[in-house]
Amino acid sequence: MALNVYYDKDADLSLIQGKQVAILGYGSQGHAHALNLHDSGVSVTVGLREGSGSWKKAEAAGLTVKAPGDAVDGADVIMMLVPDEHQQALYESVVDRIKDGAALAFAHGFNIHFKKIVPPQGVNVFMVAPKGPGHLVRSEFERGRGVPSLLAVHQNPTGDTKEVGLAYASALGAGRAAILETTFKDETETDLFGEQSVLCGGLSALILAGYETLVDAGYPPEMAYFECLHELKLIVDLIYEGGIVGMRERVSDTAEYGDYTRGPRVVNDRTRKEMKKILAEIQSGKFAREWMRENKKGREHFNSYRKESERHPVEETGEHLRKMMSWMKK
Ligand code: NAD
Ligand code: MG
Question: Which residue in 33, 108, 113, 154 is the catalytic one?
Answer without folding.
Answer: 108
